[in-house]
Structures are given as C-alpha cells and as structure tokens.
Amino acid sequence: MEKEAKIYVAGHxxxxxxxxxxxxxxxxxxxxxxxxxxxxxxxRQDAVERFFETEKPEYVFLAAAKVGGIxxxxxxxxxxxxxxxxxxxNVIHSAWKNGCRKLEFLGSSCIYPxxxxxxxxxxxxxxxxxxxTNEAYALAKISxxxxxxxxxxxxxxxYISVMPTNLYGPNDNYHPTxxxxxxxxxxxxxxxxxxGLPYVTCWGDGxxxxxxxxxxxxxxxxxxxxxxxxxxxxxxxxxxxxxxxRELAAAVAxxxxxxxxxxxxxxxxxxxxxxxxxxxxxxxxxWTYKTELREGIRLSYEDxxxxxxxxxx
Length: 313
What we know:
It is a single chain. By secondary structure, the chain is of the alpha/beta class. The chain starts with 6 loop residues before the first strand and ends in an 8-residue tail after the last helix. The chain has 10 helices and 13 strands. The radius of gyration is 19 Å and the shape is globular. The protein has a domain at 7-168 and 212-240 and 275-291: NAD(P)-binding Rossmann-like Domain (Rossmann fold). The strands form 4 sheets. It has a 6-stranded parallel β-sheet with strand order 2-1-3-4-5-10, with helices on both faces. Strands 11-8-13 form a 3-stranded mixed β-sheet.
C-alpha cells in the first residue's frame, strides 16, 4: 500500500478495527476513511453502494462484524448469520464493483471444524462439522472468505482473508453476557474483588484449551499481509500457544488481584474442547506475535478500568 492511498477500515470503532487504525497511523498511513454505524449501516446495500461510488477506496480492511460469546451466539443464531452475511457481502461486492485494488477480510478461527486435527491448518476448512454453539457465525464467515476466493478466481481480484484466534485487548467488549471469555473473566474478577466476594463461578469445567492473540499484534499482521500476501487460501493469526480456561481464569485473577475461590459450573457449556491454530504459514511469510498473554491481560485490564461499557448491567 502506498502511504497516500485511500484506505477504508470497516468497523473502525470495534476492537479489531480500532487496532488496525492505530497500526496504520503508526506506520504513516494518513488517508484513512471511516464511518460509524450511524453514518453508514453496512447491512443496507443501497447505502454501502453509494458510499463506495463516492469514496472509491483503493484498499479495504473488512473488520466489521456482529460478534458475541457462547450465550449471545446461542440466543441469536438467525441474527448472527443474517447480519454478518449481509454486511460482508455488501462491502465485498461494492468494493469489487468500484475497482478496489485489494481487500482483506477478517474472519475467525471458529470457521474450522469442531474436531479438526490440532493445531488447525488453513486447509482443514470444511472437512467436518462445525461447533454447534457458534455455527451460524462460522457459516457467515466462511461465506465471506469464500466470496473473496471466488472473486479472485472469476475476476482476478486480489482479495485475501485472515483468520484470527481468540482476540483481546483495548476497546474490547466487557458486557456481562455478550462478551468473549477473556474480557468476561476480567469483568467478573474485578467486580468480585470490589465486592469482596469469597468465590467466583465460571462456566464449564475449565478444561477446554484456548489460544489468545493481543489485538494490536493482529493489526500488525493485517497490515503486513495487505503489503506482502496474495492468495486464495486464508492465513491463520495466532500465537501457536494454548492454555486451559482454568489456567486462564487463574491468570486473570492474579493480574487483577482477586484472591477468592474459583468455582466451575459444569452444567454450563464450555464450547469446543480445543482450538489451536497452526501459525506456520504466517511465520513462513516473516511474521510472529510480540505480546505475551500475561502482559496482554495487564494491558487489557488497564483498558477495562477506563472503559465505560463495564458499567452496563
């Protein structure tokens, strides 16, 4: 990407989009185009088409999405599928119609099968059934990355996709029921510490294994791939390291300073047993992550303390 090129970051107010904006500015890209949801509803095809016809961005980072944790996905299957499929198709299609030079689609590691061989390589996509608790979201993300691939194959576009592992960091969502596991734990242990609670109850039995990537590291990879990668196959974004949810909860409690007991409610869903990405492809391209988990949790907790959404009930 040339420094003066016009770059549109879709979803710039979210955790991923805001990190991409920070990284682009850090690297000297100044001609950035953004729109809030109020200014541009990406689920409205006519509005998206007008935006692209007017702005004609040369590069697009598609980081906008409707996201949530296990409970949110279980409660709103249809909403997660519809909103994500509509917004991504609108953006990708309008980018193609208006001559966008390169587009990068942000997906999620939940696109891979529930029982995929570990660590999960990019080519295990669509080889067996998905995890039921987030199947609707996963199907929408698979559709987006496949549409990018099909445009490349049919029309010779240069559209790429990146599949991040579990993300966390500045500007995360700390909602008590609609957040992902790490920000949910940060809020839960913080509030337990403030209230002097003797124990905290976490979902599941704590055995599922998870990998976590600090969002600013992902943003660095996103800009790197936009400049250095072209291809139909997606690129995994992660650390290649995993830990159990039980170990994660203990680490969060320690960073926050909560000294009470951690209990587990095995009647609650825990999700996929294991979800580790094979990150050798990104490594072969010359990229690796920088932020270790404990440091990332510390930085995330600092962000949480100044994030007003934590007050929502």
